[in-house]
Amino acid sequence: MGGTDVQLGGADPRARFVDFDGLDWDEFPPLAEWTDDHWRDAIFDSPATIPPGDPHADFRLLQIDFREIDQDQFPPITEWSDQEYDKAVRRTREARASRDGALPERAFQDESVQLNSIPISERLALVDFQLLSLDQFPPIGEWHEEHWWQAMMSSYSAWMHLRIEDGEEEMISLDQAFGSTLASAD
Amino acid sequence: MPEYRVEMPRKYQRRIARFPDYVQRRIRARLETLQTDPNAQFLKALKNRPELSIRVGGYRILVIRDDARRAFTVTGVDSRGHIY
Description:
The structure holds two protein chains of two kinds.
Chain A: H1 3-10, H2 36-44, H3 55-61, H4 82-100, H5 104-107, H6 120-125, H7 145-165, E1 171-173, H8 174-178
Chain B: E1 5-9, H1 10-16, H2 21-36, E2 44-45, E3 52-56, E4 59-66, E5 71-79
Parallel strand pairs in B: 1-5
Antiparallel strand pairs in B: 2-3, 3-4, 4-5
C-alpha cells in the first residue's frame, strides 16, 4: 500500500473508517478502482475501527453511507455509542429520502424479500461461520434460501448470546418481561 | 407447552413499559403466539436484514428466530420509522 494510494483514499470520507495498513491487499484492487462494495468490505475488514463482534455496529454499518453524514458531528468511530450508530443510520436515510423525494418511512417499509436481491457479499457479512453449528448445514455450495436465512438468523442469535455472556446484555423471559399483572389481549 | 422460547434483553422491557397499556398487551399477545406458532402470519421479512418484524399499531418489534435453539430473541423495539 503506497503513500499515493492512501492520499487518494484520504479524499474519500470513508477513508476515515478504513485501516489501510491492516487490510489484506490481495483481496482488494488498487484504491483508484474501488467500488462501493470495496469500501464496505474494507470498513468491515478494519478491526481497528469497528468493534469486533458487535452485532449492532455490524448490522447498522450496512445501512450507513459515510458520504451522506456530516462527519464533523461524529467522534471517531471507535468511540461511537449506540446513539451515534442510530444517528448515522438516520442521517443516511434522511439524506437519501430528501434526495429521492420519498418519506424516510417509505424507503424502509417492510418488504417481502427475495434472497437473490441480497448480494452474496452482504449475505456473507451477516453470517458468522465461527459461531454457527456447521454440522446443521450442508456444504455452502449446496445452500438453499432457507439455509441462508437460518445461517443469518443463527449468527445474529449467537452474537446476542455472546453479549449476554460478556455481561453486555441481560436476557429475560416473556413472563419476566411482562409479569403476571399485565394480561395479554389482541 | 410452548414449542419456542421468547426472550428479550432487559433494555427492551424497559422501553415497552413506556408504551400505553393496550399496546403492551398486544405486544405480549403477539410474542406469546410465537411460542406455539413460530411461523405466525404477522411475522414479516425485512429487506437486507435477517430479523423478522412484528407490527403492533404504530409500533414495531424486531425478532430473530433461531430454529436450532427453538427460540425467538427480541432485537429491536420502537415506533415505526425509528426502529431501523
